[in-house]
Amino acid sequence: MNVEAEILDLKRRVAALETFVRSARNPGQRSHHSGLVPAQTGPNRPGPPVHAPETATRLAELKAEIADVRTEVSQDLEALVVEIAGFRAQTNENFKSAQSEIMEKFDSLRCEMIDLALRLDRLLEPKGA
What we know:
By secondary structure, the protein is mostly helical. The protein has helices at 3-25, 52-124.
């Protein structure tokens, strides 16, 4: 499973947990706070749910897991940046090498062309001159 899928799964689990907490606080009742997460309901929210300690523990575990995934993603991105920098350096080196090789061949061809031009001039000169 890739990191994005893990993050989405964790977000989905946190949303389900928050929904459970809201339903435990307001069984069968919809209030104007029903679309908010528990921390956003303000001071007028009802008392704690029946499973508050277990819920709080699970929520803390999920937050720690999300932090771990974020750390892993951050480390993976840093490693990717290093790899890209190495790739750029290697590509630049290869490009310079190829460019130098092409210039050498070009110079060689130019010298040969000049030599051929001189030979042609000698061959085309009148014999008696």
